[in-house]
Amino acid sequence: MKNRWISITLIVLLFAYCRLSMGETSTPDPVVLSQERRMKTDAERQAQGICDSIFGKEKSSVLVNLELGLESSQKGGTAFNRTMDSTSGLGDENYILPWVPAPKSVTKEEVPKDASVESQEAKQTVVDVKTVLRRFDITVVHDESLSDARITLCKETLKSAFQRYSKILKLYFQPTAFVHEEGFNPKETVKKNLFTSLTLRNFFLLFLLFLALWLLKFFFGPLANFMKDYIENLREQQKSRVEMENKSQNENDTETEGEESLEGNEGDLTPEQIAELEAQEAAMMEEKFEPFNYILDENVKQLAYLLHHEEPWVVALVISYLSPEHAYKVMEALPADLQAKVALETAMYRQTSLDQVRAINDDIREKIDFVVGGLEKLVGILESSDRFSRDNILEYLKNEKPGLYEKVRERILLFEDIVNFPNVAMQILVRELKTEELGRAIRGASPELQQKFLENMSQGAASLLKEEIEYGRPATNDQIEEERRKILELIKQMEADGKISFRTKEGVSALSGDEIGSETPPLNMNSILAGSTQRKPEEAQEAYQAGLGAMEAGNLEEGIQYLEKCVQSDPEFSDGFQALGTGYYNAGRFEDAVKAFDQYLEKVPNAELQAWVDQVRANLSAAA
Length: 624
Hints:
By secondary structure, the protein is mainly alpha-helical. It is 60% helix and 8% strand. Helix 2 (30-55) runs antiparallel to helix 3, helix 14 (387-400) crosses helix 15 (402-411) and helix 22 (537-552) packs parallel to helix 24. The chain is elongated and about 175 Å long.
């Protein structure tokens, strides 16, 4: 019975030991994995070097696949025997297994003298673990253009290099077509990318950028220096003018005293003396002549419109007598091409006569008060109109006069335009508005406009505004329009104070005749061109033919404008003055007709025409 239990215990221990040994050998070893990666890298580098030396660079690619494993072996131990006899003492140890003592008893058992018990034999097992190479494959992918001789040479070389792995070494050669890239040429690449990117759109953008840079250089370079010098000269003229006014005032006081002294004796003067005094007064008036002193802030826009169609030298002459502020406003209102021409004309010296300046001054004085309208007037009317009328007018302009509509929309401010405001301006605006008023104003507005206000408010203020929009007390359409009008007035006031900015600065503007469907004749400068030294015969001839054609077609005003341009281009062209005088007379402008015929008669004397002109002049004098 005792021996059976000993056998069972030995079997269980051996089974547990074997399981433990098997578990230890099957567990992956990090050291083995690291060694496997290192061997693979070294083998690939060595094999790739061999292939490159035989095939050439970039002609092949090498892949090595190897596998390492662990193998274990067991070795048997010595047997341990123990003989138990009766000579053992009471304190001696008895073992049922090696190193396993038997239970001790209090009394020593009787054992036969010659009986001996052989202990169970147990073997001491030793496990030997070693690393083995189970798999070693080399795959070479090479260019299919390589010769068989080179491939064979490469195989033999690889076998010789890895001779120690010959038992498990396997070589695989896979031909394929290699892609050969050309060498990188930086100049060619840059050139290719440059011409590829130069599309029509990019070329246009580059042109606009170059043009903008050129304009900036012009405006902040020569033009800026010129305007600075010009304004300084105007200031000097203004100072001189003030000094002359003070001097003239003193002279006027002296003359007034003299006139008062002569009033009592006027009845004693002879007609010759009276004529002499009148001549002296006229001469003094000429000395005190100040052209364009009637130009004020209120009518500078009308002056800009009148000069819109004039020759650059005429515009330069006029603005040279204006204050710097008025000259700046006039220049700002002119087209860009005319601005440059006027600037060049201002820089040139030109001899003008007093009669020319006086004629221009008188002509502008007569017409400036009769220039009415303008974009500012129209914008003011639209902004003060109710929504229905404003929408009707804008819809008509959009369909019938798209050019005028674009200009009006640039200047008029509508409640719907707030959606285009920058966020900075919106954040400043919402701080000035009450939640209740703003909620009524944007009630019924577009979702984009409501979102524009909400996204520029704090989270709490936005929640209150949403509640006001959805649950606020009802409001009529008139009340909503009134709240919107108040917000627009606040925006305009904040813009005027410089608190917010949301659109480009508006300059002095006026509508040209072709924009509104009718034309206003330009200034009549016929009486001042007789002394002009500039002649453009070709332009004069073209304008003359165009004017005659327009008058024959029944377009009298258009013909007059062409003929005026004709005599401006060539003051010595007599036929132009004759045709212009006829046009003036047919249009009922008799005084202008007489002046035009006088210019013609100075160049081509004609007794019959002279008599007729004198008769018309006499009739005008009698009517006056």
